[in-house]
Amino acid sequence: MPQDAKATVYQLDARSPDAFILANQFKVKPGDVVFVGPAGITRWNRFLTQLLPLTGIISNAASATYNFDR
Fold first, then answer.
1. Residues 51 and 21: beta-carbon distance below 8 Å
2. Rounded to whole angstroms, how far apart are CA atoms 15 and 13?
């Protein structure tokens, strides 16, 4: 593929049974890139992983403020 050629992107929503029928119509060729996004549970885990340290920071700051006031 030349440098100035634009890529064509397809997204398969595999939650639908019809998607599996349509998936057979796409032929993968050498040099094609297939990206598989994260599952729902993985996205939820990433969200919690980023949220929980933030709650710890807020808790520590509130605790430090409480200790200084005493």
1. no
2. 6
Tokens 């397809």, residue?
A: 10
Q: Give Cα separations from 66 to 26, 55, 57, 61 (angstroms).
A: 61, 16, 14, 9
Domain locations in the chain as residue ranges: 17-69
**Positive/negative CA dihedral, 40, 42, 47, 52:** positive
For 15-28, how does the pLDDT look when each residue is reduced to its tens digit (9 = 90+)? 778 877 877 787 88
Q: Looking at the whole model, is its pTM more than 0.70?
A: no
Asked if 34 and 28 count as a contact pair (C-beta separation under 8 A), the reply is yes
- What is the distance of C-alpha 13 from the center of its chain? 14
